[in-house]
Fold:
Amino acid sequence: MEKQDIYDCLKALGVPYEVTEHGPVYDMRDLARVNLPHPDALAKNLFVRDDKRQHYYLITVRAGKRVDLKAFRRAHGTRPLSLADAPELRSVLGLKPGCVSPFGLLNGSAALCVPLFLDEDFMEPPALIGIHPNDNTATVWLRTADLAGLLRRYGCEVHAVSF
Structure:
């Protein structure tokens, strides 16, 4: 799904959202230079794989958090994990580096097999999350419950977990 496809999907399902257009951002340092209306709701997304390249996971946490992949592995019983590379990102989620987003889970059957592990802090008031619409030139702000509901509606596995 392209950026406009995401907007169209949200509109068609009656999901309220807000969009902030900005220049391209490739990492959290770039994003720190952008004036955003809800900085506390901003998400950081990590697309990781196990050491056998058989299982992939999308981890979405608040922007300022660090993710301990070893602790995640122990908590969720996975094999050793590392960041997936650009070809894997393209083949599994249909995304390019800098555009990783939970909306990427809507990009076909391979993406639907990737579980989302969502930071439960996003469930706390105001329960808002800011993510890319599969394009790093905008941020979509929506209620976390609406995002989880949308992804589940399309068959995605969503887990709210503590990081």
Summary: The CA atoms of residues 35 and 152 lie 31 Å apart.
